[in-house]
Amino acid sequence: MPPAERARRSARVRRLSGLFHGLRTVGLWTLISRLLGLVRDMGMAALFGNGTVFDAFSVAFRLPNLARRLFGEGALTAAFLPALVRQREQHGAEAGWRLAGAVLTGLGGLLLAITVLLEILLWSVLQFAPLNDDWRLLLVLSAELLPYVVVICLAAQASVMLHSCNHFTWPAVLPVLLNVVWIAALVAAPGWSSNPDTQIHLICAAILVAGLLQCLVPLPQLYQFGFRFHHFWKGPFRSQVDESLRDIRRSLLAVLFGLSVSQINILADGLFAWGLAIPEAPARLEWWHILESGTASALYLGQRLYQFPLGVFGLALGTVMFPLLARHAESGAMKELRDDLLLGLRLVIVVGLPSAAGLVLLSRPLSVVLFQHGEFTVEDSAQTARMIAACGVGVWAGIGLLIVNRCCYAVGDRQTPLRIGIASVVLNLVLNVLLLPLVGGPGLAIATSITTTIQCLVTVAVLQRRIGSINWSRLQQTLNRTAIATGLMTLTCLASAALVEWLNAQQAVPQLPDTGSSTSLYRLATLIVPFVSGTTVFLVSGYLLGLTELTLLLSRTRRDTLEADQPDEM
After folding, report:
1. How far apart are CA 203 and CA 188, in angstroms?
2. Residue 19: other Cβ atoms inside 10 A
3. I need a surface site. Which of 31, 143, 156, 469 has the fewest CB within 10 A?
4. What is the pLDDT of residue 200?
5. Nearest partner of 522 among 550, 500, 545, judged by Cα
6. Considering only CA atoms, which of 459, 471, 470 is closest in space to residue 413?
7. pLDDT at position 103, please?
8. How many other C-beta atoms are found inside a 10 Å radius of the C-beta of residue 194?
9. What is the number of H-type helices and E-type strands within the chain?
């Protein structure tokens, strides 16, 4: 082997070793956060049920969530991180920290001003507009949750600063803080008041406290890395900082819309679900009330389950790959960039396809076991199960889109996600209108799944014009093997679910007292047995089929494994 090729392979081994170490770190903490998030959602469903209060909260919380994903983890991150990496590479660490201080100052002031204006607008509407009780509750909760936007977006930018230093642990811990505080509020809420309206205000207050903690926790680690809150407008590197700020501002609008498409679609779906649903106690029904009451809550919970694999794996992979892709683009190493993008897409297939199949196959037992408690009825559970299945179909595309969009921004291509995103928003709205009369509430999730799939595939095709063609034969090989393993997993899940049903009919599964909740061993078995058996069959069949991606993901990555996974050029 020529020395240059040996050096290239050795560099790739070191690079991927760091990537998988970061991926496991972020993935582990994200898994903990998502599990706590499931506990949180179970508590919300048990305390409020699929009713007006939970519907209003789920819609009100979408606005700060949208702002967090756009200005926090989304557009500003996509514009800020490459600029920060470039500043550090070209001018040193101090120049990078001064740029970071400038971004934090500008972002904090902008978000604070926007929040104050929106608060004034919301309270003015509450004061003077004739609103029914449902809309009044929605606007009050929206006003209470708005300040969360400021602190969580600043926390997200602090996380980006740590990512630029290849530190991923503390940023991954921050969502855990939110869930811990939220769960504590859920435990305290019944003792605080028996009125659901009062209880939901306590939840909102807890979210604000958690946001403040998330903003403060990264600061000691940043201080250790050398960050000081310099006054960026004076002292050295002012011209370099100003130039980087101009570049961030120029790219922000395009990146903002390009990365926000999925969030805009989710927000639009939530508004459709809220506005078109039959009120719980309607004075009269209007012609546009074509959806069941509780559709917004069911959609929220379905999206939460969809976010589980997207967050545990997709966001973790995107988090650790983005700085790596940005460094490749900055140094002009296009072959390494294509190699790492190809690896990312292979991992998306190996995780995304079985995750999508699992959410569809286990939608009903997931809904029953996780949410059918307290005020959450059997009908609520069936409604939510349909949403989980409809959301789950497109989970692989959601993960893939996250990776390819970040690759676009790493190479400075801001227009491709923007243009495809605009078309996707229009397509999603058209599909909503077409599908809602046919399939009801799940049509919202189906439309988003179809739109995301098309968006992901088109973005990959266009991206190759910029970076060159990836090794499609290697990707096809991974897809074929994963499809076979997923098919065997599906058959196993169906067979094991039928076995549990048969054993229950034969009264071979012990039952706990029927309390109307999901505490019976039978209900647990309908989830656990298919999940464990299906996962086992997928892992074993994947190993036998030679899915090396599973070895890279699940085992401590050895040097010989990484050396064997060398993508060949087409």
Report:
1. 10
2. 22
3. 469
4. 93
5. 500
6. 459
7. 85
8. 9
9. 23, 0
Task: Give the model's pLDDT for residue 290.
Answer: 60
Residue with structure tokens 């014009």? Answer: 465
Distance (Å, whole) CA 471 – CA 349: 15
**Short-list 341, 335, 387, CA closest to 364:** 387
Nearest C-alpha neighbor of 213 from the set 246, 256, 176, 245: 176
d(CA 395, CA 359): 9
Q: How is residue 56 written in tokens?
A: 């209003």
Categorise residue 294: left if φ over 0, alpha if ψ from -120 to 50, beta otherwise: left
Based on the number of CB atoms within 10 Å of its own CB, is 216 exposed (0-12), middle (13-18) or buried (19 or more)?
middle
* Those residues with Cβ within 8 angstroms of residue 266's Cβ, 6 or more apart along the chain or in another chain: 62, 66, 303, 448
The Cα-based distances of 473 to 346, 388, 479, 491, 570 in angstroms read 11, 33, 10, 27, 8
Question: How much is the pLDDT for 251?
Answer: 72
Please name the residues in contact with 361: beta carbons below 8 A apart, sequence gap of 6 or more.
490, 493, 494, 497, 530, 534
Is the Cβ–Cβ distance between 422 and 459 less than 8 Å? no
Tell me the residue type at 497: A
Residue 310's identity, in one-letter code, is L
CA-based R_g, the chain, Å: 24
> Residue 207 corresponds to which tokens in the numbers above?
């979210």
Per-residue model confidence (pLDDT) at position 486 = 97
Which residue, 57, 21, 300, is CA-closest to 197? Answer: 57
Residues present in the chain in total? 570
| DSSP for residue 315 | I
Q: How far is CA 278 from the centre of its chain?
A: 29
Quote the CA–CA distance of 308 and 314 in Å, as a whole number. Answer: 9
Tell me which residue has tokens 């393993």: 485
- Please work out, in degrees rounded to the nearest 5, the angle formed at the alpha carbon of residue 425 by the alpha carbons of 446 and 302: 35
Q: Give the closest residue to 30 by CA, choosing from 249, 285, 307, 219.
A: 307
pLDDT in tens, 496-515: 999 988 887 776 555 544 44
Task: Give the residues of the chain that fall short of pLDDT 50.
Answer: 512-519, 560, 569-570
Contacts of 56 (CB under 8 A, 6+ apart): 134, 137, 138, 141, 200
Chain segment 26-62, per-residue pLDDT in tens: 888 888 988 898 889 888 888 887 678 888 888 888 7
**For residues 413 and 463, is the Cβ–Cβ distance under 8 A?**
yes
